[in-house]
Amino acid sequence: MSVSVEVEAPTSNRELVAWVNEIAALTQPDRVEWCDGSEEEWTRLTNLLVEQGTLTRLAARPNSFYAKSDPTDVARVEDRTYICSERREDAGPTNNWIAPGEMRRTFGELFKGCMRGRTMYVVPFCMGPLGGEISQLGVEITDSPYVAVSMRVMTRMGERALRLIEERGAARQAEESEERANGGRSKRDHEHSDFVKAVHSVGAPLEPGQADVPWPCSSTKYISHFPETREIWSYGSGYGGNALLGKKCYALRIASVMARDEGWLAEHMLILKLTPPSGETRYIAAAFPSACGKTNLAMLKPTIPGWKVETIGDDIAWMRFGEDGRLYAINPEAGFFGVAPGTGQVTNANAIQTLWGNSIFTNVALTDDGDVWWEGLTEEPPAHLTDWKGRSWTPDSDEPAAHPNARFTTPAAQCPTIAPEWQDPKGVPISAILFGGRRATAVPLVTESLSWQHGVFLGANVASEKTAAAEGKVGELRHDPFAMLPFCGYNMGDYFGHWLDIGRREGARLPRIYYVNWFRKNDEGKFVWPGFGENSRVLKWIVERLNGEAEAVPTPIGLLPADLDTQGLDLSEDDLRMLLTVDREVWREEAALIPGHFETFGDHLPKELWDEYNALRDRLG
Ligand code: PEP
Ligand code: MN
Ligand code: NA
Q: In which residues is substrate bound (predicted)?
């Protein structure tokens, strides 16, 4: 194919057109296609993907598809994820770093001709409700139609996002010419454009006549972020978090940098709405590491009578101060990209209902009658399946039928518990923030922080046993501060400082901070707390605390429930004691882990967190 790929661009935004042409000249696709986000486009692209063998249409679910990835491309690749800040120090000790100049040189070679034989899709998108003040714009260029259709589920993608990019561009131009006319310099930061630029390639160019494979990808992978210029470049993977660049790359890594610079928060948090029998609604945000039940908590069915939970978001929260000094949160996403295994009628009936149609399932198993299945969907597995690698599977097979990180991609609007205000552009006021992780030992069911600063200390010390959501050994304990370890786009020590700054904001009416742990195990290795819908009992205690109605017991690590509603629960006295007491000896050992963790941040660790550590040691005696 020739290199001449000049296309009629459906936009007046010259910066966007110039960038698209520049990327096309570099990557040399056969065609350039601008995505409008229409139904017609979805149908055409999903048909194409079925034809190419990437997707299989599900006979049993309307407008739904099954994708089997390359078996080497099944999760986020954290060791191939880079923060390319000018200074290494700004990436911090928890991120991989490559100097932007060097990274750009590498990409200059890697992306040269990398879209040959493919179509380059230009995907304009908006993170957050269209036109909302907290919302942000982006454009992803990708050579994967799977990514293009997935972006339509996960973001507000297409025509309307493009119009907003144009409006913002026009407004800026007007502003600039006015400033010039007044002889002044622009107040705006000219490093940044009106939209985040995100380039993605599966890294598998096709020679003339070369047949494609169902899931093209490359063994060379880079997921790179340029925080200063607000750019994302991703190469070699078609998998969710590596390829749907609006999600982790933009809404967390790049947005966390924007948030630091502009005084807001971009967090790895679900947002839920809780209505007690009294009717006084509360909104709660909660951060847990990947695959620790954020989606389940966001869609929880309370077991306690009269309480109602509704869903705003299941993975990411952007929070800004409102005029009343409260933090207002939006869910920047439009869909759920959830872990399928373990999602079933008992654990998350609302997710199951959400998945009735218009969904894409990746690396799950296929039933003989054209539906999907995964471990935990039903108690009894079907007698026969096709597993995620395309092999015949029976319950006697040695391996799970679905990959442990198999995913569903589904529209949030289909969730039966989605709150009517989930798309309110001004967001919802947050009353409480929860942190937590998977901890078999030591950590009580719920702890209330003593102050905002102490809450930041709790967030900074989040640790969790590893899950299948990222490459690496499952079960190992790792520190995952604020559940942001893989997602913070700058120095994590500075990020702690930013959280402390948020707490010092004049006139702030801050949420209260809690630490929860649903995953405590007994001596036999069994979970002590039933979890899922029963977690509503913990939410109830939290709301009663907010209302000044529930008692708490001071302990060295924070405030624990004096009493928890366990009515009707099959929980022994010993179990309850384990969940709601602090073992000083065990906690002295826990506390001993903190200095090593904190020291990794060197000078960037705020002094206040050392103060909190010392105070904890004093309280532990
Ligand atoms: C992902 O893995 O691509 C992802 C979006 O989410 P998480 O790891 O947080 O489940
Ligand atoms: Mn996540
Ligand atoms: Na993942």
A: 76, 239-241, 290, 405-407
**β 156-157/119-127 pair status:** antiparallel
Say whether 293 counts as a known binding-site residue.
yes
CA distance 149 to 244: 10
For 49, the domain range is 14-66+80-262
Q: C-alpha dihedral over 237, 238, 242, 245, to 10 degrees? A: 130
Give domain status of residue 3, yes or no.
Answer: no
DSSP code for 412:
G
Q: Tell me the one-letter amino acid at 191.
A: E
Name the CA dihedral angle for 434, 435, 437, 440, rounded to a multiple of 10 degrees: -80
Q: Tell me: the pLDDT tens digits for 320-348?
A: 999 999 999 999 999 999 999 999 999 99
Nearest ligand to residue 269 Cα: 2
| Same-domain pairing of 174 and 283 | no
The whole model's pTM is what? 0.96
Number of domains in the chain: 3
Which residues does 614 contact at the CB level (< 8 Å), separation at least 6?
none
Q: For position 1, what pLDDT does the model report? A: 39
- What is the number of the ligand 1 atom nearest to the C-alpha of 76? 2
* Same domain for 430 and 532: yes
How far apart (Å, rounded) are the C-alpha atoms in residues 519 and 524?
14
| List of residues 6+ apart from 504 with CB closer than 8 A | none
CB distance 514 to 449 below 8 Å: yes
308-313 and 231-235 beta bridge pairing? unpaired
Nearest to 233, CA basis, from 110, 55, 358: 110
What are the structure tokens assigned to 455, written together? 């809450």
Whether residue 171 sits in one domain with residue 288 = no
Q: Which residue's CA is the closest to the ligand 1 atom numbered 5?
A: 241
Which ipTM score applies to this complex?
Answer: 0.91
Cβ proximity of 136 and 332 under 8 Å? yes
